Amino acid sequence: MNPLVQPDPGLYIWTILTFLILVALLAKFAWKPLLQALDDRQQSIRKALDDARKAKQELEAIHAESAKLLAQARSEAAEIVSRSRSDADRFREEMKDKARAEAAGLVRNAERQIELETTRALQQIRQEAVDISVGIASKLLQRNVSKEDNERLIEETFKQLEASRSAR
Predict the structure, then answer these.
(1) CB atoms within 10 A of CB 133
(2) Does pLDDT of 147 surpass 90?
(3) Is 39 helix (H, G, I), strand (E, B) or coil?
(4) Is-above-0.85 flag for pTM?
(5) How far apart are CA 164 and CA 168, in angstroms?
(6) Closest alpha carbon to 134 in 147, 150, 146, 148
């Protein structure tokens, strides 16, 4: 028979003894550091997961705050635009009112000027009419009218013109 296949009690004992020594050496020098490394790795993974959760929560909080700030900025921008438009409308209305007032002032001044010029022209026409009338009357009367007569005649003529004008 083959000697490798035959049971040998001494070989069994030495194999078991070598296995136990190897297990003891591995337990002391390899498994403890290996288990310690695995525990350290497990702790670092737990810490990384906890840090990732915290970072995610902080990111969500920052995102919510930034959304809030963005909404607030949009609201303020809309308010500023609204205020600018109302200020522009108010300024436009003020400018229109000012232009209307200036136009009305110009019209009033023009009307006053026209009225003054009309009054002056009427007085000049009256004076010329009186002078012509006095000239005609003095030729008709063949005498010279004195200054007092002339002024009295002018006054009477004005009174008659005023009376005829107010009668209309």
Answers:
(1) 13
(2) no
(3) helix
(4) no
(5) 7
(6) 150
